[in-house]
Automatic annotation (TrEMBL):
GO molecular function ontology, one term from the record: transferase activity
InterPro entries xrefs: CoA-transferase_III (IPR050509), CoA-Trfase_fam_III (IPR003673), CoA-Trfase_III_dom3_sf (IPR044855), CoA-Trfase_III_dom_1_sf (IPR023606)
Gene3D superfamilies: Crotonobetainyl-coa:carnitine coa-transferase, domain 1, formyl-coa transferase, domain 3
Sorted UniProt keywords: Transferase
Pfam families membership: CoA_transf_3
Organism name: Cupriavidus malaysiensis
PANTHER family per the UniProt record, alphabetical: ALPHA-METHYLACYL-COA RACEMASE (PTHR48228:SF5), SUCCINYL-COA--D-CITRAMALATE COA-TRANSFERASE (PTHR48228)
Stated name of the protein: CoA transferase
Length: 364
């Protein structure tokens, strides 16, 4: 990767001991911003994501250098500490206590490099009653109250389609690492970052869950339940998203469909307060309206109108979408071997693309 000369990360070196999503995604973000990332894996098995398929591993590790070290052996530990001497940060995703048992905890790392930053990403953090508990994304969401916040008139518990808590933690880890490395370079003193995936998603869910307590007996009354801000099925089995919040958009919906559906002009529904008072009636009306047409018909009906309407895109349509193509977020790999994503922020000074190579187990 040709480094962006303006980036404060252009000469930062990070050792990545982590596996699966949170740690590798965090280090990928920093790599895209100019850092060099060396991925250290267990010989023979490597990152668990390798067992989930080549595309899964590549998604979070493309562009990194790879090295296989047995951290349980004396030679492996010595080689690892030699890497630490010339690095800015180490990222690990073991359960609390594992690095200490290996003799490679923060005290051991800082003994050879006082400026080293150790970022430990774990499910529940380095302390607390759940610290040693096993967990994955669904567990952290469940224990952080993700499903405690009423969200729909016809509410239901269903799993998210992406690893929400893992991505939340990886973003916080990357931000904290950038700040800690900058601080260490200025003051010569590193630190230990304790990133809890549960803490990360709790920071997203806590406010909504706090407010939801007042509506525990009648979830439908919660202000987070908007009858006109929801997903609606269409006649052809597809779905659309209607994101009405401001009242001007309700009026625009009435202008678009009111001739055929006069109930949209009911004075009881003319204000946000009125629609909240008659949530079930408003939602049932919209549900019936949208079931009366195909998704294509609704796209035609709303074309050119200032409405927060979107088709729920299926996978092929997503990659054919003109806005997705115009923004250039996605890089296609040769021979249809998958995709690579660019960093999701555009810098006016430019940000070079990261490397496309996927490191083999054992090194490049």
């Amino acid at each position: 990767m040709e480094k962006a000369e303006w980036s404060c990360l252009k000469d930062v070196k990070i050792i990545d001991l982590s596996q699966l999503l949170p740690g590798p995604h965090a280090t990928t973000l920093l790599m895209q911003l100019g850092a060099e990332v060396v991925k250290v894996e267990q010989p023979g098995t490597g990152d668990t994501s390798r067992q989930l398929g080549a595309a899964v591993f590549a998604q979070f590790n493309r562009g990194k250098r790879a090295l296989a070290l047995d951290l349980k052996s004396a030679q492996g530990k010595a080689d690892f500490l030699a890497l630490v001497r010339g690095a800015d940060a180490v990222v690990e995703g073991f359960r609390p206590g594992v690095l200490r048992r290996l003799g490679l905890d923060y005290a051991a790392l800082s003994a050879v490099n006082p400026a080293i930053v150790l970022c430990s990403i774990s499910g529940f953090g380095q302390d607390g009653p759940y610290a040693d508990h096993a967990g994955h994304d669904l567990n952290y969401l469940a224990l952080a109250g993700y499903w405690s916040v009423p969200a729909q008139v016809e509410d239901k518990v269903s799993r998210p389609r992406t690893r929400v808590s893992d991505y939340a933690a990886s973003g916080y880890a990357a931000l904290a690492l950038a700040v800690a490395v900058m601080s260490a370079r200025r003051h010569g003193r590193g630190q230990h970052l304790d990133v809890s995936i549960h803490d990360a998603i709790l920071s997203w869910t806590a406010h909504g869950a706090w407010a939801a307590r007042a509506h525990a007996d009648k979830p439908l009354d919660a202000p987070s339940v908007l009858p006109d801000n929801d997903l609606f099925a269409t006649r052809d089995g597809r779905w659309l998203a209607l994101g009405i919040l401001e009242n001007k958009f309700w009026l625009a919906l009435g202008e678009a469909l009111g001739a055929a559906h006069p109930a949209l002009h009911d004075p009881r529904f003319a204000t946000r307060a009125g629609r909240m008072r008659y949530k079930e009636e408003v939602h049932a009306m919209l549900k019936g309206i949208f079931l009366g047409g195909t998704l294509a018909e609704w796209e035609a009906a709303f074309a050119g109108r200032d409405l927060p309407f979107s088709p729920v895109l299926e996978a092929q349509a997503l990659f054919d979408d003109p806005h997705v193509q115009a923004r250039g977020m996605i890089r296609s790999l040769p021979e249809e071997k998958g995709i690579a994503l660019r960093f999701p922020v555009k810098f006016s000074l430019g940000l070079p693309d990261s490397g496309m190579e996927v490191p083999p187990l054992g090194g490049t």
